[in-house]
Task: inverse folding
């Protein structure tokens, strides 16, 4: 017994001698947070629990960088009342190394093995309403609506606008809280929903047309209408201009109103002479007035004028036939009595871009069995008659002005007109999204300069065509070199 007791004491002494210093070193080297224990993924030191708790706050109550796109924002914890229960976390950590757990950790120390890992989750609170308000404020400040495309007049094309961005506040809040609860990489990106830029709209197109028109050294006016949507652009469209050959459109409509199909051979020949002749034959137009007037051209002109009034075209009239020596009576219209713009319109025949643009749009709709003409003139105006008018106008050989701005082969039914000081072109175009009409008239005192008027109408036409392509996301037509056009200086028609 004594021997066993002696051996026990010897072993105990040896253990004390061996383990005592190890235990002393182990105790001296321990922080307030046991070895192997992390706090929310971070290795937190501290000689005392209070020091460890302070270190927890330094890590987790630091500001977070929040990015709204490229904009860097700083969110401080006090702005959303973000607080960490550091004392509670340290207490939880210390509880992991009490009693038998303490002996286990010491044994691992003696065996030079790393302690068993354990993590204490982050304990925190924040004000949800304040975080929501902060996010809403950033959203209001930095979100943006998508913008529409805009025109580049140098290329006659439409440039995409800026995409829109809207914040997903719920997802952004989650990302920010994740950043606050990470010991490192304390950055968050607000979740942004991208919205594509808007295609060009009517206002975009109108702004582009106005900018190009303003480069013209003279008086100008324009009317545009999309036949499908009814969308219009009216830029001084009620300005009075010389009617020139463009008022041959109401002559054709009146002729088809008065006579049944098929038209006789001589009438068709005079129509062909009127619309297909390179000089837009005035003799052919007078022959048609002769038919309408029952053997008298002046009566025919009067009947066309009355017909225009019936259709609501208050600014369109033919006072006397083409190339007539008769002195025309003074005819007052809302347009030619408007003092804003004075193009010194021909007293023999006048119109406005709006009158002719609307009339050709009505003819185009009628050709497809729609619109007001059929209802207003039942039995006299039919889709078949309107289609014949469109087909005639598509045979106009003039390839410049509006027609030059669209791709070759595009169906364009148009009637152009030349005067000494005025020019006009009225066109029904089968565009990328369907038919539209475009009527452009210009005036320059004394003489219209072809090298100004023709490029203007080319560019306007190209802008409208590219407007439709841009709306559909298609490749737009490039600009063209006006110097390549070899058309001679046109002679006045009337």
Result:
């Amino acid at each position: 017994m004594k021997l066993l007791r002696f051996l026990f004491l010897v072993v105990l002494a040896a253990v004390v001698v061996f383990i005592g210093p190890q235990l002393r070193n182990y105790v001296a080297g321990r922080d307030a947070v046991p070895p192997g224990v992390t706090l929310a993924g971070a290795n937190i030191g501290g000689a005392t629990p209070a020091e460890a708790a302070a270190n927890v706050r330094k890590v987790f109550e630091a500001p977070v960088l929040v990015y709204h796109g490229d904009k860097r924002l700083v969110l401080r914890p006090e702005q959303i009342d973000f607080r960490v229960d550091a004392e509670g976390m340290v207490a939880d950590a210390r509880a992991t190394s009490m009693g038998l757990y303490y002996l286990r950790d010491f044994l691992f120390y003696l065996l030079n093995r790393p302690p068993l890992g354990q993590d204490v989750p982050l304990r925190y609170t924040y004000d949800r309403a304040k975080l929501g308000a902060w996010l809403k404020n950033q959203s209001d400040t930095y979100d943006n609506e998508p913008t529409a495309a805009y025109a580049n007049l140098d290329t006659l094309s439409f440039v995409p606008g800026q995409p829109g961005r809207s914040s997903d506040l719920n997802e952004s809040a989650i990302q920010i809280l994740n950043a606050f609860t990470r010991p490192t990489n304390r950055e968050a990106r607000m979740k942004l929903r991208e919205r594509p830029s808007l295609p060009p709209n009517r206002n975009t197109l109108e702004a582009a047309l106005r900018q190009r028109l303003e480069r013209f050294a003279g008086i100008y006016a324009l009317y545009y209408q999309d036949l499908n949507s009814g969308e219009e652009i009216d830029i001084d469209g009620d300005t009075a201009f010389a009617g020139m050959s463009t008022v041959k459109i109401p002559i054709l409509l009146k002729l088809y109103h008065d006579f049944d199909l098929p038209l006789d051979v001589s009438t068709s020949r005079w129509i062909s002479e009127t619309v297909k002749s390179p000089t837009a034959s005035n003799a052919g137009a007078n022959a048609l007035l002769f038919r309408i007037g029952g053997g008298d051209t002046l009566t025919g002109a009067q009947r066309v004028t009355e017909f225009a009034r019936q259709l609501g075209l208050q600014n369109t009239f033919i006072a006397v036939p083409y190339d007539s020596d008769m002195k025309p009576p003074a005819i007052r219209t809302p347009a030619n009595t408007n003092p804003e713009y004075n193009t010194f319109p021909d007293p023999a025949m006048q119109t406005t871009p709006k009158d002719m643009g609307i009339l050709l749009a009505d003819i185009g709709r009628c050709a497809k069995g729609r619109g007001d003409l059929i209802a207003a003139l039942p039995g006299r105006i039919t889709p078949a008659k309107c289609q014949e008018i469109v087909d005639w106008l598509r045979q106009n050989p003039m390839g410049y002005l509006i027609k030059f701005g669209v791709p070759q082969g595009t169906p364009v039914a148009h009637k152009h007109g030349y005067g000494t000081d005025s020019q006009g072109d009225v066109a029904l175009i089968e565009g990328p999204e369907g038919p539209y009409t475009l009527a452009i008239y210009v005036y320059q005192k004394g003489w219209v300069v072809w090298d100004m008027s023709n490029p203007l109408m080319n560019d306007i036409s190209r802008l409208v065509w590219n407007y439709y392509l841009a709306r559909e996301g298609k490749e737009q037509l490039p600009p063209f070199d006006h110097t390549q056009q070899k058309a001679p200086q046109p002679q006045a028609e009337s």
Observations:
- The mean pLDDT is 89.
- The longest helix spans residues 2-29.
- Residues 31-195 form one domain.
- The chain has two domains: 31-195, 202-484.
